[in-house]
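K Homology domain-containing protein
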Amino acid sequence: MLLCSLVFWYWFLFISVTLGLIVVEGISYVEKKEVRTLLREDPKFWTYRPFSELMVRAAADDVRFLPYIYHRMMEKLNERSLWQLAVRGALYCQCFCITENEYADWPSIPRIPDNLAVEGNVPEQEILSVLDVPPGKMGCIIGKKGASILSIKESCGAEILIGGAKGPPDKVFIVGPVRQVRKAEAILRGRMLGY
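Predicted structure tokens:
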């Protein structure tokens, strides 16, 4: 469950930056440059224990701005965007934290708050669909240099994730509003059948 929590916060930050809710500027400092150089020389640099003083300073500096970023994000989020982040975070976690009991032990996806449903511009409920890809068909879905999957994403508007190195290699995850997800499912099933 810790991994799922980390996945949620990663997506929380990613979506917030993507939506322009916060602007993150890179910080350059001497230790960071030293660590990058050492990491290039030895890819196992971060596996050594105990951490050296340099490693501790670099790791601490990597996370010291997270509380600041969190508070800046929270200032800019309204109830609608908080709901969207909570839903997307929960759905993304389910993508990569596959369980045998079909998520029965997971909390339910947050429903649309009542006051958002009254405003007239009611957001669509978002869902997750998981498609099993038959052996040898993933290439048909992804296409040459990812062209097929990018085309499907653009035409549907849904987020489409491939398991690969991050999750089950034989699954495609589709996240978004119901209509967009259903459209993506139909196109992907057609690709798997060779249409």
